[in-house]
Amino acid sequence: MNMADKVILVTGGSRGIGAATALLAGQRGYAVAVNYVTNRAAADAVVAQIQAAGGRAIAVGGDVAREEDVLQLFATVDGELGRVTALVNNAGVLDHQSRLEDMSAERINRVLIANVTGSLLCAREAVKRMSTRHGGQGGAIVNLSSMAAKLGGPGEYVDYAASKGAIDAFTIGLAKEVAAEGIRVNAVRPGLIYTDIHASGGEAGRVDRLKDAVPMKRGGSAAEVANAILWLLSEEASYATGTFIDVSGGR
Ligand code: NAP
């Protein structure tokens, strides 16, 4: 496949790991759709950086938790960049650190719908466009799981950890479902990465508090996660599907 034909959608591409992934994808020759939910200025800044480096990119708003937004998001990408050949299911949320006893049903549902339903809906739309079964030319999907899927997030966010466990199961299942249709589906499990997500959990300094427990004794950067994502999307990973890369400093 010619690189000029490569179109990537990065959900939640406006900040953190998604922004680093969008920037790297732009450098690698993808036309990049940078999705955001509220922070248009951040998405525009990522797009401007890609364009300044000679790449092609658009910012597209939309809440992955809402089916109508997901349909509109893919329709916009179809019209402006062409059919997606790569999807990074990166958009994800967590809420304040809390024990399960103190979590409301509203909070649990919000986290599960954004992280799980949102990723499933985006993957569904990508498969419709990539699968040889539907006249597509194949493609690759990378889901953002988390080391929380293995560690469980006790005392902080077991709801979030459960959502990432679901991402792991969905990665394995969808990979097998579409393997013969030209689509590879893999996931990355980041560990403690310096992004804004920890502030949304109520502790902006969380990575620094916990980094000594990481075998490498440091937090990771969004760019280090993006490198693994772009490798899984690339032809270098052509025989890898239904698999995981832990980017966690050994944690
Ligand atoms: P972040 O810095 O908080 O950025 C979140 C991004 O997702 C933003 O671009 C945000 O858009 C977007 N977003 C949030 N909800 C959305 C929705 N409903 N629809 C569309 N976009 C939405 O997060 P991050 O740390 O980069 O995390 C990215 C992914 O990696 C997540 O899936 C997270 O669970 C996973 N992860 C992160 C870490 C870590 O330590 N950072 C560790 C393990 C896994 P706006 O800018 O518009 O708000």
TrEMBL record:
Keywords: Oxidoreductase. Residues 6-196 form the Ketoreductase domain. InterPro entries: KR_dom (IPR057326), NAD(P)-bd_dom_sf (IPR036291), SDR_fam (IPR002347). SMART domains: PKS_KR. GO terms for molecular function: oxidoreductase activity, acting on CH-OH group of donors. Pfam families: adh_short_C2. It comes from the Bacteria. PANTHER family: NADPH-DEPENDENT ALDEHYDE REDUCTASE-LIKE PROTEIN, CHLOROPLASTIC-RELATED, RE15974P. Belongs to the short-chain dehydrogenases/reductases (SDR) family. This is Short-chain dehydrogenase protein.
